[in-house]
Design goal:
61% helix; methyltransferase; extended; 9 helices; transferase; SAM-dependent_MTases_sf; mainly alpha; 3-stranded parallel sheet; 2 domains; restriction system
C-alpha cells in the first residue's frame, strides 16, 4: 500500500469520525440503521454535478421516497412473507429504504421479503449492496448492475448468477469439510501410531 493510499484512508477515517458517521452506523437497531441512506450521501458527495448529470444520477430526497412508498405500498396489508420488491433503477436503494422503514413500522420484518435492486452504475449498485447489508434486508436480496431498459431480463440473469455462486459456495464448503475430515483422520492415525510405538 502506498503512502498516498494510507493518507486517503486516514482522511476518510477522520472525516467519518469528525462528521459523526459512526453515530449513524454504530447501532444494532435495524430501524435506526435504515433511517439514513449513507451510501447515497457518500456517492453524491464524491461526484461532481457534471458526472452525476452525465450518468443520469439524481438523488431522490428521502421525503419524496417516503411519500411514494406510502402511495404504492399503502398500509402494507398485502405484504406477506416472500413478497417481492424491485427497483430497476435503484441507485443506492433510497426508494426501497422508505419501504423497509414502513414495513418495520408495521411490525413486518423486511428479511422475510425478497428485494431486487438494479442500477446501471456499478458504484451505485455497490452502494446498494452495502445498504442491503447495513439495513439488514436478509438473504433474499439481489443487487446487480445492468441496464433494465436495454435488456429486459437482467433480473433473471442476476438470479441465475446468484444461484451459480451459491452452488459454487456449497461445493467449496463440501470440499473444505472433506479436507478437514481427512486431516483429522490423519492426526488420529498419527496419534495412534505414536502410542503403539
Amino acid at each position: 500500500m502506498s503512502a498516498h493510499d494510507l493518507r486517503c484512508i486516514k482522511a476518510v477515517a477522520r472525516a467519518a469520525i469528525t462528521q459523526g458517521l459512526f453515530d449513524l452506523t454504530g447501532t444494532d437497531d435495524p430501524y435506526m440503521l435504515a433511517d439514513f441512506d449513507l451510501m447515497s450521501w457518500m456517492i453524491t458527495s464524491m461526484r461532481s454535478s457534471g458526472s452525476r448529470k452525465w450518468l443520469g444520477e439524481y438523488h431522490t430526497p428521502p421525503e419524496i421516497c417516503e411519500l411514494m412508498a406510502r402511495k404504492i405500498v399503502g398500509d402494507c396489508s398485502e405484504v406477506k412473507p416472500g413478497h417481492s420488491f424491485c427497483d430497476p433503477a435503484a441507485g443506492t436503494g433510497g426508494m426501497l429504504r422508505a419501504v423497509v422503514q414502513m414495513l418495520r413500522e408495521r411490525g413486518i420484518d423486511p428479511a422475510t421479503c425478497r428485494w431486487h435492486l438494479c442500477d446501471i452504475d456499478p458504484i451505485a449498485a455497490a452502494g446498494a449492496a452495502v445498504n442491503v447489508l447495513l439495513w439488514k434486508l436478509g438473504p433474499n436480496s439481489t443487487v446487480w448492475c445492468g441496464d433494465t431498459l436495454a435488456q429486459a431480463d437482467t433480473e433473471r440473469l442476476a438470479l441465475e448468477e446468484k444461484a451459480q455462486i451459491y452452488e459454487y459456495r456449497q461445493e467449496l464448503r463440501w470440499k473444505a469439510a472433506t479436507v478437514a475430515a481427512v486431516r483429522q483422520a490423519e492426526e488420529l492415525l498419527a496419534g495412534a501410531t505414536r502410542k503403539a510405538a
